[in-house]
Structure formats: structure tokens, C-alpha cells
TrEMBL record:
The keyword tRNA processing does not apply. It comes from Fusarium torreyae. This is Uncharacterized protein. InterPro entries: NAD(P)-bd_dom_sf, Sc_DH/Rdtase_CS, SDR_fam. GO terms for biological process: fatty acid biosynthetic process.
Amino acid sequence: MSLHGKHIIVTGGASGIGLAIARKLLQASAFVHVIDRSDSMTQDLGDQEGLLHFYPSVDISSREQVTQTFDEIAQKGSAVHGLVNCAGIVEQHPTTTDSDLAFKRVLDVNLTGTWNTTTEFMRLVKSSGDIDKKTGVSIVNIGSTASFRGFPGIPGYVASKHAVHGLTKAWAQEFGYLGVRVNMVAPGVVITPMTKVDGSGKADDLTGIPCALDRLAHPEEIADVVHYLLGSSSTYVNGQGIEVNGGWL
């Protein structure tokens, strides 16, 4: 499932799961366009072939900033082949009138941001001409176990990730005739800066995680599934939400 020479856009690619995805794609010799709100990558990915393009300090909740960034990508003159919507935030807040701003912040990034990047991506796809219907173009949304379940204390996050699942299914129907596949990867708890665990990987690092494998996921384990969905081994996989949670049943 070669991604050699393909142009893949990864939002939230400067750290955590997004960074692992970017690294995996670079190892596959893909051109990787990382969009992030940070001004620098948290790790040097050792790009020796000039495959990595970094677009820093981009707020994906801003249509203007996203349009400008995708215009920069388009100016490089190559067709785009894949989009990974990995950027996201989580905030703890109750369901009260005092939480309006927190609720809005989470939805602005996780939902509106995904909408902004996908619509701009599809603008580039449609302007690039005919798509090979066999290999096609692939969009992978990063959802969450919270795309399928409810959790107290993070209603904005749960709502946003359920919505991303809904968009995945809607877009799979809407874009399928073009040869564009849309799927969602839904991780459980992953060892990243967002989860703030110590890296030991034991499920009891966070209480109440009913994971059959009794450990947390490593970002690379999520990146492997994303790589599969972007590649030619998944050309008939469309509209799916794939849970990667170690057996959170």
C-alpha cells in the first residue's frame, strides 16, 4: 500500500498522535504537510529528503487562516491525496450556564475546525482534475471512544466527537462518487501530552479505563491504522468508524 510520493495533509501533526502519523507517513516516503497551532514541531522527525512541510501557528477554527494555508499548499503545484483531521482539544467543564465559552472553544476546534479543513481540502481535490477511482483519495478523521460513548465532565468533547463521527458518515456518502473515501479512527486513551500520563502505559494510570489489554495505547499504534486507511489496501473501506482502544467493550 505505497504512499510514496503522495501528498498528505495532517492537522495537529506537531505532537502526540498527529506527530506519530506524520512520522509514519514520512517513513512511507510521502510528502507530509503538517498544520498546527504550535509554532514548532515537538520532535525532529529527521526529514532528510525534504518531504516535510510545516505550517505553524494556524488556528483551524478560523476559515481565513485555513483558506490561506491550503492556498499555500496548492501553490506547491501537486495534487493532494489524503487528509488526516487530527487536531483537537479537550476541556473539562460542567453542563452549566457558566460553561458556554468552554463548550464553544471545544466545538470550534474539534468540529468547526474539521469542517474548515475538509471543505478546503475538497476544494483542492476538485480543482486538481480526475481522480483514479480505484486508488482514490482518502480522508481520515480522528475521533475518539467518546464518538460512541458518553462521559461526564467533558460534554463539549463528547458532543464534538459524536459530530465528527456523523460528518464521517455524511461525507462518505457525499464524496464517494468522486472516489474520495472518508473514515474515522477512534482511539481510546493514548499516551500523549493531552492525556498527561507518565508513559508507563498501564491502564490503571487513569482510573476507570476498562481496557482488556490492561494498558494505554502508544501513538504509533493509532498511526498504523491511519496509514492503512490512507493506503491502497483499504480502497473499499468507506464511512467506517474504527475503534482502536485495546478492547474497551
